[in-house]
Design a protein that fits this description.
The chain has two domains: 3-21 and 205-300, no CATH class; 89-202, no CATH class. It has 310 residues and is an alpha+beta fold. Helix content is 25%, strand content 23%.
Length: 310
């Protein structure tokens, strides 16, 4: 996104917004998932039913309540979900985002089921569940996709085992308002019985030095303008959060870090932040801590890179 567009969008959103909302946290796909789901009312008939490998999937709509998806085997409930919207066999809100019931996604030969749920409401919340319907039932993963439509299943490894792509919403409403918050792409592959971040598939070529130099100069000019016009500093720097002036700088840095180019990200920051503008070291410390607190922190997967001392 060009700097001028960033400024226009964020400046409009900042009107009347002085305090950013609370940050919400995503969960890694292998985090334990538990949900208390009531029993199906006696006599209620399902609106949708599927039979897969000895399992029965039934979708119920109790009166004045959210729909319930119940999975049973030999008449016993093994799994249930209750949400505003439930889409069995679907991984996003688009009708083309489907995987056939009975497909194997993980390469272990067992039948899998994908379920997409949507809670409704402002800015939230999409979940995609991957279940295993084998000799034993297993809830393999819950992809907490948050504000995105869902996730993407692709064979990026070209081995017949589907990888999963979504976005890291750890930074929403922190660096910028939700509509302009950075949300780097993250990719998972199924390995050793669970989905793990695939840093090699996230790796991107380092951008040209000339491109980063031009971007850094544009950011420096904003800091210079803010110094000349201190009364308009917040507007010029589109400061949704005082700790993160110039959100497009942090967004670019996140793209670089998640793409395996942290050395370039740190060089960009050093060149872009005007030396005479206060708070440089503090801002970088807070940014590093923010990245490290993401459940999908790419620094834990890429080869360790030296970071500046606090």
């Amino acid at each position: 996104m060009k700097s001028s567009l960033w400024l226009a969008v964020l400046a409009a959103l900042l009107i009347g917004c002085s305090t950013p909302p609370q940050q919400t946290h995503q969960q890694p796909p292998d985090a334990p998932f538990k949900q208390s789901v009531p029993a199906i009312p006696r006599g209620l008939q399902p609106t949708e039913t599927h039979h897969v490998n000895g399992y029965t999937l039934a979708l119920y709509w109790p009166e004045n309540r959210q729909p319930i998806l119940e999975i049973t085997r030999s008449g016993q409930r093994v799994f249930a979900l209750q949400e505003n919207n439930i889409f069995p066999g679907q991984f996003n809100s688009h009708p083309d985002g489907k995987l056939p019931l009975g497909a194997n996604l993980t390469g272990n030969g067992n039948i899998n089921l994908v379920i997409h749920t949507y809670s409704g409401g402002a800015n939230c919340c999409n979940d995609v569940h991957v279940l295993e319907l084998g000799d034993n039932f297993r809830h393999i993963a819950r992809f907490d996709a948050r504000n995105a439509e869902g996730v993407s299943f692709e064979d990026l490894d070209k081995n017949g085992i589907l990888t999963v792509s979504m976005t890291d919403w750890h930074y929403v409403n922190v660096i910028a308002p939700m509509i302009a918050s950075p949300a780097p792409t993250i990719i998972f592959r199924f390995k050793d019985g669970r989905y793990q971040l695939a840093s090699d598939l996230m790796k991107q070529p380092a951008p040209a030095k000339e491109e980063l130099k031009k971007f850094a100069q544009e950011i420096r000019q904003l800091f210079e303008q803010a110094q000349r016009e201190p009364g308009k500093a917040d507007e010029i720097l589109t400061r949704w959060n005082p700790d993160y002036p110039v959100p497009q700088l942090w967004s670019k840095m996140l793209d670089l870090i998640y793409g395996g180019n942290e050395t370039e990200a740190l060089k960009l920051f050093d060149e872009a932040w005007l030396e005479t503008y206060p708070g440089k070291e503090k801002a970088l410390r807070k940014f590093n801590a923010l990245v490290d607190s993401s459940p999908f922190n790419p620094r834990l997967r890429f080869n360790p890179l030296s970071k500046p001392k606090p």
